[in-house]
From TrEMBL:
Organism: Algoriphagus namhaensis
Lineage: superkingdom: Bacteria
Alphabetical keyword list: Hydrolase
Signal peptide: none
Protein name in the entry: Glycoside hydrolase family 15 protein
Boundaries of every Trehalase-like N-terminal domain copy: 10-156
GO molecular function: hydrolase activity
Domain GH15-like positions: 217-580
Length: 593
């Protein structure tokens, strides 16, 4: 069975994300927001999705892709008989006038590396989900694409007629292609592009140097951190689960979802990973996002929101061909209507560093006491309520062990917050809810398995309960932790340390692929119970399930090793980072050894 991997890398600047394929095509780019209509969507439809390529004059060529070290700047080297050239793609991001400059601007630098290559540039943006190509209109040094509200402009020092005609020309000088949405580039193209490239390189490399990480698999952790960083929409602080939609969890499964939204749960995991490497600016921005979220009349939150906090994310089916023909293609996500009660505890745990870490001052969270009390109220109100769980079952409501785990964790966090804020009412209520949550977790215990089931009354094993171990629910009782881990291994462990979420029937059948974050939870659990050698071996084994740029998808087919699901998946990179941090702590030793 042929192995499938995603042949693209990402660039971004916390305002937009673009996917660049190995053939130089910009196969996914949404303007002006992560969840907007796409300008380029060849990932989902080669005919309707438009294209933006820098190709040689022949169909026979080879390409390699690498990131500029410790940056989100992507280089694609194209080689063929007549020579080779490099395409450098980046999204400008750097400090300017005490603010981050992050324009809706994609810059492509094309330079000769060897020989006398000829290139042809093809830029065909679209709108209305691929139903309309934009109409080009020529200026003196740019092409304006008509048909959308904001101006989309390609500014270049390349011959515009050749671009429009798709005609090849000799690469006798370095070419710059600057695609802008809204305000165009009105400055010297060569010097400005070079300055932006230099400044963006310096920004990312400085950001990396400000991280605190262990020596264990540093390169992978840094790449994951860089990718996670550009999944935050900095304007509001929202963090998306993935930049893509409708990439199938397995071929023909119809499990094709739009992940370009902010899940409260996913954000909890992402912020945990950032905290683990000593980065808190993402948490501070997210705190602003949470404070501005709408809730219903009862003060309840949804599982997910748009990146600007909009609550209605109506799911629509598009007639697009789909990734490799996989349908349906969805825009929007019905999960916004679900009841997922774990989210209240996740918000509390996410925000805990603002209160428990002495690096934050009182003024940075002084107005949040009502929000904390409301979250505790919601834990209390939903303690006995069935929900869809973290796997978002569409037609199955249960009292999930995972939900109770976060009721417990959220209450523990709120108790600490109460102490810091000298709020006795908050502390007392949190302790009471913590004890209630423990009783609910124990109601999921299966004596014959010496393990905890998916939900009250369920005998199914669920990988989410690995976090009973990783989140410290068992305390120092390694026997209980190992017994639970053994039962999960018996039911859900696949080859090469891969792990299934669960193996029972759901709304769409029995899951066919393993879920990568579950595998990293498993690795982390191994480290927690002292099985360090296995954790180290497993981590190294799982790292082979990346693409050529060390980017990880949501799902892995254990039979073929193929990547599936939305890509790259923030969840998976978070799992990698947290597992590496956990192992790094266990292996902590002097750097010279």
């Amino acid at each position: 069975m042929q192995k499938h991997t995603y042949g693209s890398g990402l660039i971004g600047n916390c305002a937009y994300i673009a996917h660049v394929e190995l053939d130089t095509n910009i196969s996914w780019l949404c303007f002006p927001r992560f969840d907007s209509d796409f300008i380029f969507g060849g990932m989902l439809d080669r005919e309707k999705g438009g294209k933006f390529t820098v190709l040689p004059e022949t169909d026979t060529f080879e390409t390699t892709q690498t990131y500029v070290e410790n940056t989100n700047i992507l280089e694609t080297l194209v080689s063929y008989d007549e020579g080779s050239y490099r395409v450098t793609d980046f999204a400008p991001r750097f400090k300017n006038f005490d603010r981050y400059y992050k324009p809706l601007m994609l810059i492509r630098k094309v330079e000769c590396v060897s020989g006398s290559p000829k290139i042809k540039i093809n830029c065909q943006p679209v709108t209305d989900r691929g139903e309309r190509q934009l109409t080009p209109s020529f200026g003196s040094n740019h092409i304006r694409y008509m048909g959308i509200d904001q101006e989309l402009r390609l500014t270049s020092n390349a011959p515009l007629s050749y671009i429009q005609d798709g005609k090849s020309f000799g690469l006798h000088k370095t070419i710059y292609l600057v695609l802008t949405y809204g305000r165009p580039l009105e400055a010297p193209i060569e010097t400005t592009s070079e300055r932006f490239l230099k400044e963006t390189t310096a920004y990312w490399q400085a950001w990396v140097k400000s991280t605190h990480i262990y020596n264990f698999h540093q390169k992978l952790v840094l790449r994951s951190a860089l990718i996670l960083k550009i999944h935050q929409y900095e304007d509001t602080g929202a963090i998306i689960a993935a930049s893509t939609t409708s990439l199938p969890e397995s071929p023909g499964s119809t499990r094709n979802w739009d992940y370009r939204y902010c899940w409260i749960r996913d954000t909890y995991y992402t912020l945990t990973a950032f905290s683990g490497i000593g980065h808190f600016e993402e948490l501070e921005k997210y705190f602003e996002f949470i404070q501005n979220l709408p809730s219903d009349e009862e003060g309840r939150y949804q599982p997910l929101y748009s990146i600007t906090g909009e609550s209605s994310l109506v799911e629509e089916i598009s007639p697009l061909y789909g990734y490799l023909g996989n349908k349906p293609v969805r825009f929007g996500n019905q999960a916004y209507t679900h009841i997922q009660n774990d989210l209240y505890g996740q918000v509390l745990v996410s925000l805990l560093p603002l209160y428990s870490d002495q690096r934050f001052t009182e003024s940075e969270r002084s107005s949040s006491q009502p929000m904390i009390m409301n979250l505790l109220d919601k834990i209390e109100e939903t303690m006995h309520e069935k929900d869809a769980g973290l796997w978002e079952f569409r037609n199955l409501a249960q009292e999930h062990c995972y939900t109770f785990l976060f009721h417990w964790a959220g209450a523990c966090a709120a108790a600490k917050i109460g102490i810091r804020m000298k709020n006795d009412t908050m502390y007392s209520k949190a302790i009471e809810l913590r004890d209630q949550a423990i009783k609910k977790i124990e109601s999921c215990y299966l004596p014959d398995r010496k393990a905890y089931g998916q939900a009250v009354g369920s005998s199914y094993m669920d990988a989410s309960t690995l976090q009973l171990i990783t989140m410290g629910y068992f305390g120092e009782d390694l026997e209980r932790a190992n017994n639970h881990l053994k039962a999960l291994e018996e039911d859900l462990l696949a080859k090469d340390f891969l792990f299934y979420r669960y193996k029972h029937m759901d709304d769409f059948g029995v899951p066919e692929t393993t879920f990568l974050i579950c595998a990293f939870w498993y690795i982390e659990a191994l480290a927690c119970v002292g099985r360090i050698d296995e954790a180290v071996e497993g981590f190294g084994t799982l790292t082979k399930y990346c693409n050529h740029l060390q980017l990880f998808s949501e799902d892995v087919d254990q039979k073929s090793g193929s990547q599936w699901g939305n890509f790259p998946q923030a969840y998976s990179h978070v799992g990698l980072m947290n597992a590496a941090i956990r192992i790094g702590k266990k292996l902590d030793r002097p750097t010279f050894l």
